[in-house]
Design goal:
Blueprint lengths: L8 E6 L4 H5 L1 H9 L3 E8 L12 H18 L4 E7 L8 H14 L3 E5 L13 H17 L7 H5 L9 E5 L6 E4 L4 H9 L2 H4 L5 H15 L8 E8 L2
Parallel strand pairs: 1-2, 1-4, 2-3, 4-5
Antiparallel strand pairs: 5-7, 6-7
Helix pairs in contact: 3-7, 4-5
The chain binds zinc ion (ZN).
Length: about 240
């Protein structure tokens, strides 16, 4: 399995603005510190999020894109791509597979991160239907769509060559096998989450809540007491 010193580019695929920051921003900060280029692909604009009924959903979509771009900057990411699918109604469709395969062929990442397509009964919010749909389509896009020269001939017609990704880091699923110590990047993860003002502005003790989650992950991974971790299921695809 490739280690971080051999990795040049990582593509992080998520369903909603803020998913990346709740799930993996601490790890992303460590990756960009190590000189790895990280690109985000956000499938929806999060237009069904927030609690402000006076704001139009179109305005909410614009706001959430702006917040995500600001959050990305906190952890060293400047390339954020939005696919504009409707929030709350994502399906693992052929169109979504093709759109994700297109991004994979454009970015040519050494590693992809995506949500788990499996329902996690112990952590239902992680198993939002959009997360599961995006996870399923992302894994199909990694294997076989992006690497198969005969999948989606329209991508080849766009000049996009097949691209093989060998490693996927899956978040939010029931099976975890990698625990990344993010104690040193925790403050930047919190700054990224704070950038999603429309979602986190009302959370009085955001750092405390995150510390609780992340220290449980660290404990699960056998890290020393007081450390914080983000957890993944890392899979290899030959
Ligand atoms: Zn989400």
């Amino acid at each position: 399995m490739p280690d971080d010193t051999t990795i040049g580019r990582i593509l992080v695929i998520v369903a909603h603005p803020d998913d990346v920051d709740f799930g993996v921003a601490g790890t992303v900060a460590a990756w960009t510190d190590a000189g790895i280029e990280v690109i985000y692909c956000i499938v929806t604009d999060g237009d069904a999020g927030g609690s402000d009924a006076s704001m139009s959903r179109a305005d909410m979509a614009v706001l959430r894109r702006t917040e995500q771009i600001a959050a990305a900057k906190c952890v060293g990411v400047s390339d954020v791509r939005f696919l504009g699918y409707p929030d709350g109604r994502v399906e693992a469709s052929i169109d979504l597979r093709k759109d994700l395969a297109r991004v994979i062929r454009q970015v040519r990442p050494d590693r992809v991160s995506c949500p788990s397509p499996e329902r996690n009964y112990a952590r239902m919010p992680a198993s939002h239907p959009d997360h599961r749909a995006v996870g399923s389509a992302a894994l199909d896009a990694v294997y076989p769509d992006a690497r198969n020269p005969f999948a989606f001939p329209e991508l080849a017609a766009e000049g996009l060559e097949p691209w093989t990704v060998h490693e996927v880091w899956i978040t939010g699923g029931p099976e975890l096998n990698r625990f990344v110590d993010i104690t040193e990047t925790f403050d930047r993860k919190i700054a990224a989450l704070r950038a999603h003002e429309s979602q986190t502005g009302h959370m009085d003790d955001l750092p405390g809540m995150l510390r609780g989650w992340l220290s449980r992950s660290a404990e699960m991974g056998g890290l020393p007491k007081g450390r914080l971790a983000e957890a993944f299921q890392v899979i290899e695809i030959r």
